[in-house]
Specification:
Mean pLDDT of chain A: 91
Strand content of chain A: 15-25%
Shape of chain A: globular
Helix content of chain A: 40-55%
Oligomer: homodimer
Chain lengths: 213, 213
Amino acid sequence: MEVKEISQAVIGRLPRYFRYLGELKDEGVERISSQELSELMKVTASQIRQDFNNFGGFGQQGYGYNVEFLYNEIGKILGLDKKHNFIIVGAGNLGRALGNYMNFERRGFIFRGMFDRNPELIGNDVRGIKVMPMEELESFVRENDIDIAVLTIPKTGAVEVADKLAQNGIRAIWNFAHVDLNLPKEIQVENVHLSDSLMKLSYNINRYMQENP
Amino acid sequence: MEVKEISQAVIGRLPRYFRYLGELKDEGVERISSQELSELMKVTASQIRQDFNNFGGFGQQGYGYNVEFLYNEIGKILGLDKKHNFIIVGAGNLGRALGNYMNFERRGFIFRGMFDRNPELIGNDVRGIKVMPMEELESFVRENDIDIAVLTIPKTGAVEVADKLAQNGIRAIWNFAHVDLNLPKEIQVENVHLSDSLMKLSYNINRYMQENP
């Protein structure tokens, strides 16, 4: 199947459109023009039209976009109409926070298992899922059709765990470990390096203070 | 003071350089060429030189960069040589995960307070910090020289809390609430919308599956 090459910058903006459209839909809004969406989201209307043109434009017809149609179409593009089983490796606070976040289920991400190397955490319950020992990780991934692994472990060990997951058929890793993984290109990786984000904030604070002493 | 305009894309890459240089320093590496750094970080050497030229180039001298000097200089650019007091608003799993993350302290971010509206969480202890009720938030921010607020609360309420923080002198918000804040431009905001990142991963999984059926 031919798929048009879409830049990761455009892809990166789709979830935000999806989020805003979901809120409009929940508020009962049926139609919205690119101009109104532009004001709401604080991006230019031309950016919105350009982004949507990557996907055929979604049929803006003078009086604007149909909100529910647009929401559903962007959801399909994002693959949110499909179910993806995921596991969390690392049952610390961050792993538990993600395991407890119910909204993932609404988006088609089904929480199937949780793993930790700390014997004291084994058997703990996060939203009905018991924490399992690391020794069971590989067979669990193979036998339970797991697509996504969320890595919430320290950077030591993360590379090794990611390699094991890759060898056992994982499709994607959502990586919160403070290390860049180096995996075959068929494994999708999305890094969330929280410290990097905090450092960027620190830069912007200091820059503002220098410019406005 | 004159400050050269640097793109947010370059700023966004600095923390990753800082992270790699910190590891090289810890391993005792004293010098590194842009070529070696390029191979390690999997970005082109020309990208590295371009990025560094925004800050005067850091004195690459044929035999490469001095690792410790470069690490310290990038740290200063990121403002990591300064101390910033921060609080966490929202004492759920995510708030506790961030409060427990010791590395922030090493980067100059000092954990000063934690707040929640849930009476059952008041008084709970996270790394020596007791959770306080929301009623104390505004006076605490004013009286304790708080620069950064980490928002780990649901999206309902987040906009209102952010406005209160802004009125009481906060400089920056690290926003984990699933809503875009709308604050005066003197307040720096860094959004971490975790669901957006997961949706991007979902897109990339589905795209790969369509291209490789």
